[in-house]
Amino acid sequence: MTILLSIQGVSKHFGGLQALTNVTFDLPEGQILGLIGPNGAGKTTLFNVVNGVYPPEDGRVIFRGKDVTTTKTYYHARMGMARTHQIVQPLNELTVRENVIVGACFGRENQSLRQAGMVAEEVLEFLGLLPRIDQMAGSLNVAEKKRLEMARALAARPYLLLLDEVLAGLNRAEIAMMVETVRNIRQQGITIIMIEHVMHAVMNVSDRIIVLDYGQQIAEGTPEEIAVDEKVIEAYLGDPKLAQRLMEQND
Amino acid sequence: MKYWRNHIGLLFPLLAITGMVLWPILTGNVSNREIVFTILKAIALASSLNILLGYTGYVSFGHIVFYGFGGYIGLYLVNEQGWSIWMGMLAGGISSGMLAFMLGKAILRLRGAYFALATIGINEAMEAFINNFDLFGGPIGMTLNFSVYRAYGGTAQALSMSFYIMVVLTFASLIVSHLVRTSKFGLGLQAIRENEDAAEVMGVVAPDAKTWAYVLSAIIPGMVGVLFFFKNGNVEPHVAFPLHASIELLVMVMLGGQGTVLGPILGALAYQGMRGYLVTSNFFKDIQLSVSGVLLLLIVLFIPAGAIGWLRHRFSSLRRVLA
Description:
The structure holds two protein chains of two kinds.
Chain A: E1 3-14, E2 17-28, E3 32-36, H1 43-51, E4 58-63, E5 66-67, H2 73-79, E6 81-83, H3 96-106, H4 113-126, H5 142-155, E7 160-164, H6 172-187, E8 191-195, H7 199-205, E9 208-213, E10 216-221, H8 223-227, H9 230-237, H10 240-248
Parallel strand pairs in A: 3-8, 3-9, 6-7, 7-8
Antiparallel strand pairs in A: 1-2, 1-4, 4-5, 9-10
Helix pairs in contact in A: 3-4, 3-5, 4-5
Chain B: H1 2-6, H2 11-27, H3 30-56, H4 64-80, H5 85-107, H6 113-131, E1 142-143, H7 155-182, H8 184-194, H9 196-201, H10 206-232, E2 234-235, H11 237-240, H12 243-256, H13 262-280, H14 288-302, H15 306-314
Antiparallel strand pairs in B: 1-2
């Protein structure tokens, strides 16, 4: 089993706020890792550190054997890391097609415009956005914008996909569709880390879950282990029976 | 067939310029030629500024610095060192490009209003520097030794040749604009315009892309500067670095529609037309710049995307044709 991403003792603070404390884990290729925890636990901060938005004060981030602790986001993109944003960041005045072409052009495969155009159509079909392809990205609704974020990320043909709350704000039907999409992405061999608050979804989809609380890793394990972990129940899930119910609920 | 579809956006711009160029040639009228020269100059400058302003989304209030700086270098080489106008223009363009490269490394990390302010500062600093630089004549500037024209067949010939060089530069600026717009590089620039952070996350190397956009937008203004001062016969600091000309360029680009190839042409044409009327009218001749201020205000308030942007928005079927 190859290790795709290795987080080694990463710490980050903003002024007096300790956002991440000594976070350490390895992510093998092909896994779906769920990242959960209360609001403000440091999940998005961890994404930003992994993705090169800002460097950590301490620790190292190793991606595909290279130290990427202090490199910039565009370098990470070239190396095969793609992400979606919790708050969607569409390129409003460009069409849906152009948005995705940007992802394909400047991502890992560094494609030409012509190739990228074909990749864009393929990816947009996969995500059900083909009818919107020539619309301005700014005119999409929230659910579509989230799928556009995914499309851009996928078009880069990444090795690692960072999904930041792609289910938030979606209705039940949309969530079911998105969960199916995430599974399909994994089948393409892409490794995924997903931050998620929709518990039944993350429990169902993840191979492994890491729980953050106040920047600390308080638990790590399979969904089954996490659901019965006392610390997790106390910090996040709240009700022990709730965890059990979440596990039984199937999408 | 498909190949031509990609370039259909260039059709209107080329036709518009060709029409403008034919007018003085067919009428054989020198004063018409001068009018068209002024318009073409505005188009070439506005179109170059558009690469930075329209595609990349960075507002440069001091873009005229490249025109003045390149012009000074080129005129000095032509006048004092005996270079030909061709080599002088090349040197002027390269100098402006290099200036933009160095400035880009320094100030393109600034965003929004801070970058705009920095560009004003650079223009003013350059004017102050040239004012005190004796090699370039200091505050008096340089006057072209008219014997230079002899190499081109006399004054009348040289002036007529300048017009045709201006035509070529204008076409070049439009082709550059179109190529940037339809290239991968240009797509990266547009991504930066829309959301620089998101563009970087997707792999656009924003610092490099911005710097090259800045360089590209500076080269043709540098060449235009050399040509204009050559034709004009002299150059002075306040003629080379007029801050109001930078602002007029912004108005032209925004009036026609930033981020389009056709926009700066329409904007420059409309603005120069209006200006021609204003400076000759008794009422407006002293306050014509305030009219452009009001115009800028109205554009920003009511048609922020400019005329072409507005048309493209209203009639989406025009999107392919009005590039």
